[in-house]
Amino acid sequence: MQRDLTDAEFLDELEHVAEENLNHHLAVAKEWHPHDYVPWDRGRNFAALGGDDWDPEQSQLSEVAKVAMVTNLLTEDNLPSYHRGAAQHFSLDRAWGHWVNRWTAEENRHGIVIRDYLVVTRGVDPVALERARMEHMQNGYDPSEEERKIHEPGPLMISAYATLQELATRVSHRNTGKICDDPIAEAMLARVATDENLHMVFYRNVFSAGFDLAPDQAMEAACAIIEGFQMPGRGMPNWRRNSVIMAKNGIYDLRQHLEEVVMPSVRKWRIFERTDVSARGEKRREQLATYLEDLQKQVLKFEEQRDRMLAREAAKAERNAEKAAAAS
């Protein structure tokens, strides 16, 4: 019978893995500077310094791009809460602490560059953005009671969650850049997405090593995280509305979640190929298989509903255009 390991045992057993992956990260991560991705020549003073305050007509972003940019930025803004959780569950000792602090420093650049871009280009209302930041950061981020019932946080769980979360934010940033209709914004968010991918590799590899160390325990952790996954930005203002808009417009939807986040992790961790789990792990794996089959059905249902909604909106826009043309 496999014995479950304590959090302290996981940290001790996996420290060499953390050190190896930290060193790999430091070797491949390229230094970059937020100021190089901001078009400063498009900026000017606001009213407090003798200029003009923000007006919606100043923004060159579509409404969808605004929603996606703000959602991504507020997600990045809650970094102090993420750092607290990482420090608590990985510790700030040895290789773990070096990684937590390095990851935090790199993640902080994301919020800096996106906010600078939005303020300089007047892409969104800076006052509304600051108020949303204050509200979101004061709320903080912690696993919900529902999530804690499914899985109590620890180094194994956090590694599995961060793997999916970093992949998800990579997808969201990359697709947001594509719909901004601005090559500077696209290059900026592609740079951010590259960071997210490198961070994902660290967490994914740590969890893979944990899977080899305690197969049943890791199987339960992976399945719990996949089935109960929620984005860390869920507590921000207008989260539900904005996530629906992003899904409707293909920035982050169910198919992308399944095919670009969940299944790559399932394959990398060899969840359905492993032969080292006991009956306990096998039972949990079977439950995951059922969940994934249902998720695929949800994907198809969502896409059918979205196609009908977009068709209705297109027809309505066409009718309105015809009325406007007739009136003129």
TrEMBL record:
The keyword Metal-binding applies. Its cofactor is Fe(2+). Pfam families: FA_desaturase_2 (PF03405). Keywords: Coiled coil, Fatty acid biosynthesis, Fatty acid metabolism, Iron, Lipid biosynthesis, Lipid metabolism, Metal-binding, Oxidoreductase. Residues 285-320 form a coiled coil. Belongs to the fatty acid desaturase type 2 family. Homodimer. This is Acyl-ACP desaturase.
